[in-house]
Amino acid sequence: MRRLWRGAGLLVLAQFLGASIYFLLSGSRRKKSPIPVFIDVGPVEDFAPDSVTLVRRGEFYLNRFADGGFLALSRRCTHLGCAVTWDRERKIFTCPCHASSFSRDGSVLKSPAPRPLDLHPLIIEKGRVKIDIGTRRRRTLFSPQQLGYPAGKQKT
Fold first, then answer.
1. Nearest to residue 120, comparing CAs of 64, 70, 155?
2. Tell me: the pLDDT tens digits for 17-75?
3. From start to end of 4-97, where are the E strands?
4. Phi/psi at 83 (nearest 5 deg)?
5. Comparing C-alpha atoms, which of 61, 78, 94, 98 is closest to residue 27?
6. pTM, full prediction
């Protein structure tokens, strides 16, 4: 009877370990699209300067800064991939899972997140904002060169 219980215990332990390893590695095996997948999120005028808009279809936030620049930030926390939320009053992104927080440009304000929020490439074409939802770019720092501007409005 002891052997039976030990065997059952080892089987349960093996299943638990296997499921845990699968969970931790599951997001890392996703294939990235080799070709950009752009979605049109609307005209530039629909996004007020100094605003943050959640775009559910692509799972990202579209930031429009006061100077007119745009930045598309992934909703996935860089710690374990939980969905971050925009805190309008404090003007920061927060992760409900482990309390990481990020500034408006996606830079880490509070750990355990190891790096800034990922970016989605964007283009502004004929006055419309288009985001590549098939690509997420990892980054280590925020740089003003990451902002996209409407034609003729680039900040120098």
1. 70
2. 888 777 766 555 555 556 788 999 999 999 999 999 999 888 899 999 999 999 999 99
3. 38-43, 51-55, 60-64, 70-74, 85-87, 92-94
4. -80, 120
5. 78
6. 0.76
